[in-house]
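Just curious: can you write a single protein's sequence together with how it folds?
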Amino acid sequence: MDLFSHVLVAYLVTYGIVGFQPSYLAAGALAGGLPDADALFFPLARRFPLLQHHGITHSLTGVTVVAVAGAFLAPLLAPGSALVYFLVMEVGGICHILQDGFTHFSVPPLAPFSDRRLELDADRAINFVTMAFSIAAFYLLLVVERNHVPFATYVLTVYLLMAFFAAYFGIRLAGRFAIGRHRTAVGPKAVPVPTGNPFKWVLLSEELADGRVRTTWARYVLGKGLVDGPYSVEAPVEPPAHTGAPTTAQEALDWSYGPARKASRVLLMTYHFGEAFRTAAGAWVAVWYSLEFTAFGRASGVRVSFPADGGVPEVHTTFYRPIHRVV
């Protein structure tokens, strides 16, 4: 999840443990965000893999080391119990681990003793809905309400925020487990992919055989089941030898898939789909786009345009609004 949501959830959980005690609240919230400080280790991560993002800092070992350090240092900055500081910082760090493991960005909670990953695939690694909500919540708590409203109003706001996240995580979990019953409709190896809307999911499968990649997906809505699809597309990893301009949508997809993969790391790293259509001028255009790297109805993708006269195709990275509204 995003940094703002990590910090806010840790703040709320800390409040549930110690109540309104600003020093402890600040320590717990700080610990909720600190695991992502591993981004600062980037220059060393290639040599020491444990320091890579979602490495040792996202483990019980890492958060415990931070909590122990906080137990010694925090009382020097603000009066309080070293034991309570340790507790709230440990819990804040664990909240971070659980939230990241809740998404499709796995973490190693038992590192360095085990490489086993935690990955529930119930949410996106970065969800703009929770990010915007968390930013607005901090503005409300720290700017609008602080020293401006009765304490009871602040407490009510905190409990409403707790209720929001409890409901949000509950809906995500319900969708994650409910969609599993529909996997056979898409394929035996189908995987669920969460969208930005907690009620909507993409169920998809990807198969590689004889040098061709075949992707199938269907749209799922919690409470309604599969509501759209399944749709399928396939293309060769390496484009076949060809001359002139494509004459069909499948040819446009076959010829464009290889160049599109080379033009975008996003396509290589995420599940993706392709669509081809003919322009009014008679030229074929193929667009390959991510089924995961999406926001506001658009997806990161690559557009390959084939001139009608058979000239050199133009390849451009783009943000694309799919014909089949999967995002």
In short: The chain has nine helices and eight strands. The chain has a mean pLDDT of 91.
